[in-house]
Amino acid sequence: MEIQRPVRYPIRGRAQVVLPNEEVRSGHTQDISFGGVCILLGDQIGLNVSYPIRFEMTVNGKVQVITTQAKSVYGVFASQGGFRVGFQFDDADPKRTALIDALARKKPMVTPRKKESAPSVATNINAEGPNPAVTDSPETPSGTALPDF
Question: What is the pTM of this model?
Fold first, then answer.
């Protein structure tokens, strides 16, 4: 069975990931899809863990700051140094989706590769938690404050 990866769009902006010990790792975004974002970090982080993340994306000439929870689903060594970490969004935030949709109308897509098979990844949706949103606030959905970019 062939499974095609979601269409991804290249983005470049600053990013931060808050580890369980509240240490903040800084990096840069590589690409984004409706389901997640790829962030280049200096060091590998634990996989299959949900982290508060924050990243920038420029849409229609304006820098937007996205703050949300996302699960790390893959991590690979990057040829330019560091690690590419793929995050799957834990929620389906309509404001973030609208920004990605606007970006999709302007940016060329990263050519998706077909996979022969893909493991099933369950999405951890926390219906009772705070609603992650597009914001300029340094607060993450879990309440952990992120330093300014």
Answer: 0.73
